[in-house]
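Internal ticket - ligand job 546, calcium ion:
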Amino acid sequence: MKNPFLCLAPLIVCFTVTAAALPQGGPIAGSLDNIDTSGSPDGIVPLPGTVHPTITNVFDRYTKITADNGNPIHFLIHANVSNAKVAHARRILEQHMTDVPGSTYGSDKRALRESMGNLRATMMFFPTIDSLDNGGPQVDQFLDDYEAPLQDLLGDEIILPGSVRYVGPNPERDASYEELVHLMHGYGLIPTMPALQSQIENAASHAVSAGLYSPPPGLPAADIPFEYLAFTMETWYGMWAHEPNNGEYVFSSRLEMEAGDPNIVSILEGFFPPFHSHRAEVVATFSGTFHAREASNLEYSFKSRYLNHVELLGTANTALRGNREDGTLVGNSGNNRMQGAGGQDHLDGQAGFDTGDYIGPQADYGVYLMDGILTVEDTVPNRDGLDRLVNFEQLQFTDGAVQLDTYVDTANHYCASTANSTGALAQIHVVGSPLVSHQDLSLTASNLPSSQFGYFLCSQSPGLIVGPGGSQGNLCLGGVIGRFVTQVQMSGSDGTMGIDVNMAAMPDPAQAVIQPGETWHFACWFRDLDPTPTSNFTGGVSVQFQ
Ligand SMILES: [Ca+2]
Ligand SMILES: [Ca+2]
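stdout (structure tokens):
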């Protein structure tokens, strides 16, 4: 049978069917259910031999996003599309589908995600339009017979961050955002958010009648809301600022849209995150300084300014500049210079000799080292904000550089426990700031047996009690011991657990408030089976608060 859900034109999707008429899969699409991708570092695996030949005749690899109810959203990959491009696209679809807390329409997208999984919505990756349109009888047979909704994305339209086509003098548009919005829109949003869909339709008709949006010639009227949503989403994320006279939409920036097309802006703001939450991996061939913020002489920065999680691949001595939002910047194995700029940023230099760049003199900054994590706080408002740095070697201020071994760690690990059933010694770490005024302290425990209950403990005195109450471990606390029993945790499959500590209401003495100058000691108690039921502890860690 002819697949009724497919349009072959590269920018056009067919949405002429209702949700009730959509299939749930069949012998072909159904053969993709339950493929295990968990053993692959990037989640991409060869298609197993159990998959129907109609699929394996065309594609050789597979990945998926699993909806909340366990149903898969399939990704089918042609041999000539790279894993890096597919993983990039998958991260973008995950962003489109992820809740945006506090937003008007997007605060709970669970039904949307489950709709896509229930329908077995499928992305197919071909290298070029020719390999799709003129791919031969096996491609045609796949397109005709596959029983679930399909959306195509072409490898040569996926523009990876930092690649020549991304940063070059004529930066190109990455089609991933658009095509993945189409899949999400058709099979997630429409079946589950009819009120939002009617607002999109109204905004689209208004934009067309007001001459703001000119649909591509030949676009069926029913498809206009889809193309309009995707194009305005791209514009909102700065993807058309390099080509303001594109002929399709009269606006090219967020500011212009807010003034001239507020209907769609309130829809976009109400559904998508204002800055990209997906990880952007800057390709290993990039050299120089990657700007995740606007630089007037760099056209690519009109779009990269909305990236908030950027990681450098490869080994080049690359620099990375963040924007004024809270962000995550990760270096590569080269010597990196990194600047978080405003907001609260997490910076990880990885291997190499890495330098954190600051735009004021050293005296303007508070620098605190706790358990290997450096906090750098700019005391001048609205400038560098507060950064958390790991794996850095140096800070560069305007009046000089400071080596990180200058700073003394305010956390101290002491008193190891004993091996638990995993064979390892459980570890405890403190994350946050030793400055009481920051009110920022978390505890994490690792090397725990999985799926076991436990809770954290605190005291103002260290100690060593061997095997308390029949435990196989050692309790490294003395004096009055507080138990965070209102925050009982279960360890995950990775053998970790963690809590945020309310420094103004410690468990014992009840409601104690941590004061500057005090030293507190922490450990974690957890159940274990070794092989009979028992318990164990992490070692101890102390923090001297300031
Ligand atoms: Ca920032
Ligand atoms: Ca590095």
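Auto-summary: DSSP finds twelve helices and 30 strands in the chain. The longest strand covers residues 519-529.
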